[in-house]
Amino acid sequence: MASRTCAKFFLTVICNKVYCASGKDNGFGNSYVWAGSLESGIQIGTHHKKPVMVIIHKSWCKACKNLKPKFASSSEIQTLSKHFVMVNLIDDEEPEGNTYSPDGSYIPRILFVSPKGQVDHDIINEDGSSQHKFFYSRPEQIAKSMKKVIQKYKLEEFNA
Question: Fewer beta carbons under 10 A from the terminal one: N or C of the chain?
Answer without folding.
Answer: N
